[in-house]
Design goal:
Shape: globular
Strand content: 5-15%
Order of helices and strands: HHEEEEHHEHEH
Radius of gyration: 16 Å
Distance between the termini: 16 Å
Number of helices: 6
Largest sheet: 4 strands, parallel
Structural class: alpha/beta
Number of domains: 1
Number of strands: 6
């Protein structure tokens, strides 16, 4: 069984190594890009290494109590996770969470083009995750999305962040705050 503490410890153990690869002399946008890429790789590698035990199927981790707060949903958008879940068809919507009872943290994996349709999916996210207070998106963006449109529709959550944007095409001003909240949360579990 994978626990939240185990997942948190895995990430925290790698934290110093991650920052060694981020040049403090780089501009802010480049720092974000480099960090986001490394962080995404780390999360993806962890999921791949644990995917069998987590029984990843149809884009949803089932049967694994990750030990995290039910107030947190982490939705990862990445082309790097393709192949670690059963993909029956091209995903055009968030997977159905209605049958999820004991899963504490819901993770959804969808392909890159779907992220650009994020605003149209927010109602589905709200329907399936009505108690979510924090949404953290890790992924790459090929084209910009309307931040205000997303934020206005995400008014049912307390926080929204995109941790990595391709070529820094999308600026999320509170990127760092979202990152700090996420890491603080992981630290509290370990």
């Amino acid at each position: 069984m994978i626990t939240g503490k185990k997942a948190a410890q895995k990430l925290l153990e790698e934290w110093d190594e991650i920052w060694k690869e981020v040049d403090p002399g780089q501009n802010k946008g480049r720092q974000r890009s480099v960090f986001g890429s490394i962080f995404e790789d780390l999360v993806t590698d962890f999921l791949k290494s644990e995917s069998e035990e987590l029984k990843v199927k149809k884009g949803l981790i089932r049967g694994a109590d990750l030990g995290l707060s039910p107030q947190v949903d982490i939705i990862i958008y990445s082309n790097k996770v393709k192949g670690i879940y059963e993909k029956e068809s091209y995903p055009t919507a968030i997977v159905d969470y209605k049958d999820v009872k004991s899963i504490i943290e819901v993770k959804s994996f969808v392909d890159l083009p779907t992220l650009n349709r994020l605003p149209s999916q927010i109602d589905k996210i709200k329907e399936f995750c009505p108690t979510a207070k924090t949404c953290i998106f890790i992924g790459t963006l090929a084209t910009p999305i309307d931040e205000q449109q997303v934020r206005s529709k995400f008014n049912f959550v307390d926080y929204f962040a995109i941790l990595y944007t391709k070529q820094n095409k999308v600026e999320i001003n509170d990127y760092g705050e979202g990152l700090d909240k996420f890491i603080s949360y992981l630290s509290s579990l370990s």
